[in-house]
Amino acid sequence: MADWTEALIPDQTGRVMLVTGANSGIGLEAARMLAQRGAQVVLACRTRSKADAARASILADAPAADVSIIDLDLSSLASTGEAAAEFSGRFDRLDLLLNNAGVMATPYQRTVDGFELQFATNHLGHFALTGHLLPTLLATTASRVVNVSSLAHRMGKIDFDDLQSERKYRAWGAYGQSKLANLLFTFELQRRLSAIGADTIAVAAHPGISDTNLAGSSGGIAGKLMSLTKPFAKVFSQDSHAGALPTLRAATDPAVLGGEYYGPDGFMEQRGTPKRVESTGAAKDPAVAERLWHVSVELTGVPFTALDTPS
Prior knowledge:
By secondary structure, the protein is of the alpha/beta class. It has a single domain, classed as NAD(P)-binding Rossmann-like Domain (Rossmann fold). Helices cover 41% and strands 12% of the residues. The protein is built from eight helices and eight strands; from the N terminus they run βαβαβαβαβαβααββα. The chain has helices spanning 25-36, 48-61, 77-90, 117-138, 171-195, 220-233, 240-252, 286-300; strands at 16-20, 40-45, 66-71, 96-99, 144-148, 201-205, 261-264, 274-276. An eight-stranded mixed sheet has the order 3-2-1-4-5-6-7-8, sandwiched between helices. Helix 4 (117-138) packs across helix 8.
């Protein structure tokens, strides 16, 4: 089979797509390519000045593109609800929710809601946003939710006894947990969508090792080490454009099925062209996925009633 490339992204005219963390890196490249294919793209970003710069960058490449901005801080449940309400007030369809934003290996911080920052931003914020927007997704034919995970999910473990790392905090351990949560959420969401016969699907992707500014969110020893090793990491990594392709395949390839997972085809999935890949067994554990779902509903207060099956 020929490699999947940007040229294979179908025409997206008439479709509405929301991309979180679209101001830089993979999110910006994905938003750019979707806008170039005719989609109405909404950049959901925490910092308005960076979102404005990202929009200007996209319009410089595609002056006729339809690109707008919604303020979104995924570490705040209030902001997540407000962003979803603003989107629903402006649009009556949502063809793609691309849950891309994230922070990586940050020093220990608690959010305004009292959650550990990485778990809150990478998982709970996207869980809540998806729940708020699910009615619009379900009302849109053949819509998709794409969650961006990471190779780091392989070192993750869901510690239900210490989800917020209050007893012990390891920056990379917390990151791995949040990225494993992305996959567990994807697969459980797909199971629940299938149970109600929805044609909305949930898919996951990872960028391999991509040379983005995500490492800039790291601090302390981890951040210093990543800065020192960045010149060497370029040998094993790919740029943001290539790193966005697995996500774009998950988002646009007509052959993609719900519950699939896409990443690079190269050595250890570090770089290369996008293909279907496998997660760890831990990411497919149905009991853990269901428990995480219920815990996430409790923590966010977002019940996903749109997925309720008739009794």
